Amino acid sequence: MQVITIELSQRQELILAIVRDFGPITGEHIAEKLHLTRAALRSDLAILTMSGLLGARPRVGYYLTGKSPASVIAGVLGNIKVAEILSQPVAVRDNCSVYDAIVTMFVEDVGTIAVVSEEGFLEGVASRKDMLKAALAGKNINTLPVSVAMTRMPNVVVTYPEELVLRAADKLLSHQVDSLPVVTAVQSDSPDKLKVVGRFTKTNITRLFVQLGEK
Asked: Cβ neighbours of residue 53 under 8 Å, at least 6 residues apart?
C-alpha cells in the first residue's frame, strides 16, 4: 500500500516546532512568537487540530498529539466501509453488442462497466481499453458480443460492501484500474456466483476526502 502523506505549509511547520518546544502554549503566545495576530493563525491552527497533529485544551493551550498525518487518516478511513460510499452499478448483459456497450459508457460517463448474465451474476468487466481493442480489430462491433471483448472472471478484481475503503483503494492502486465492481456472494453450489450491487471508483474516494474536509 502506498504511504499517505500530507504537505504542510512553512507556517504550519513553524507552529508545530513552537508547540514542540514550548507546549502546551496558547494561540496568542504562538502568534507572538511568529509576530502575527491570533486571527492570522486561525486557519492554520484549525487545519493542524483537525488533522490530529495538534490537540487543544481550554485555558491550557495547544500540544502535540504525537500522531503522524498518515496515522490520523488511516484511523478515520479505517472505520469506513465500501458500502458507505459506493456508486450505483452500471452493467450490461453479456449478449450486448460492443457498440451498445460503448454507448452505455458514454451515456453513463464511466470508464468501465460490469457485464452480467441473464440472472444478474458478474461475468466480467469491459473497459474503454477493451472496447478500443475490439473496435481496432476490424470486426463488426454492432454484432460482436461484449462478452468476447471483456475481461472475464476470475481475472476481475472486485470489492465487497463490508470491505474497508483503505483496502479497496489499495486494490485500485495495485491493479491500476479506475473502478471495481462491488459484489455480494450468492448462497449456491457455485462460489463464483457474485451479484453486482455497486461500483467503487477513484471519484468515490475523492468525494469522501472532500466530505471529511468539510466536516
From this structure: 16, 64, 65, 67, 69, 72
